[in-house]
Amino acid sequence: MSDRELLEGSEAIARAAVAAGCRFFAGYPMTPFTELLEQMAVWLPKADGVCMNAESELEAVGMAWGAATTGHMAATGSTGQGLSLMQESLSEITNARLPLVVFNMARGQGDYFQATRGGGHGDYRHIVLAPMDVPEAVEATGLAFRLANQWRTPVMVLGDYYLAHTYQAVSVPPIERGAPERPDWALNGSTGGSGAAKIISPLGSGVDGEEGFDLGAHYAACAAHIEAMSAGVEPLVDAGFCDDADLVVAAYGSVGKFVRYACLRLREAGHKVGYVRPITLWPFPSEAVRDAIAGAAKAAVYEQNMGQMLDDVRLAVLGAAPVEFIGGPSWDPAGFGIGPDINVPDISQRILEAMT
Fold first, then answer.
1. Contact at 8 Å (CB) between 326 and 351?
2. What is d(CA 334, CA 306) in angstroms, rounded to the nearest whole number?
3. What is the tens place of the pLDDT at every residue in 86-113?
4. Which H or E run includes 317?
5. Euclidean distance between CA atoms 213 and 159, whole angstroms
6. What are phi and psi of 196, to 5 degrees?
7. Domains and CATH numbers, the chain
8. What is d(CA 124, CA 121) in angstroms, rounded to the nearest whole number?
9. Chain mean position to CA 297
10. Against a cut of 0.90, is the pTM above it?
């Protein structure tokens, strides 16, 4: 008997997060993120966890930050608009070396730059995963918590309306009650007033006598950590039909699934087209993207925006092949990102036009 269930994306992601050890979640309702917040409120108490409906995104990320310092596996999220309010905290959480998972149930694909470049201050980067559907989102959620703990850094799962609201048959790991063991660096209040109190701060993890924080040394250590993450996080990519392709199309997230299917149908019709779909958006799988496009006469990028991942594809190719943008904004009347142009016939036509 199969253990798969027919679940909406928001429920599957929430259950996967709790199964991965998440025990604290805070957020503020904003569609299409709202349903994930509601599902976390259902499933976290089943594992003795806590879900907070915050008064704003600023309070949500502050609550998650506080929970993370105690060593509990914490998460937060919003849409891109709400995450704009969280950027200062996300940059400081990164420099404080705290594990945190952030879910962006985005409206369309206009948040690529926000996710991969960030809008906070200072010299920081964090890991970004972009699943294409509900089963892959379940896997990405578990991976996000593992990477957050391994590297002590925020990890973003970048989704959208399709991911949050689509029903698919999926296997979700079982949830165990109780919290995972907390790490040695976690704060529990026991060292306060001892003269050797633990500190977790974006300014550093220790105070050197009367000199205070050594910011230069801390920022240098943060830079070394980012470099280590960039080299140490395995880049994930999905590619197909690239060996003899005249054109390779790059896309990510839910839209990447449409592009992949369009390429399959075009292949069946005799057109030499391939696809490459980055799953890790940072670190960007530049080498894999370059290899996928290496034998093609041309590359194209399809995104539901004005062209953002386009920059990273061009940097990966470094002029070895021309790269054309074939995407564009596509909006429903409510602006949730349910693009009327995101359909296989329309995408296929754009691919064929790019091949001429």
1. yes
2. 19
3. 999 999 999 999 999 999 999 999 999 9
4. helix 309-317
5. 38
6. -140, 45
7. 5-170 (3.40.50.970), 237-355 (3.40.50.920)
8. 8
9. 31
10. yes
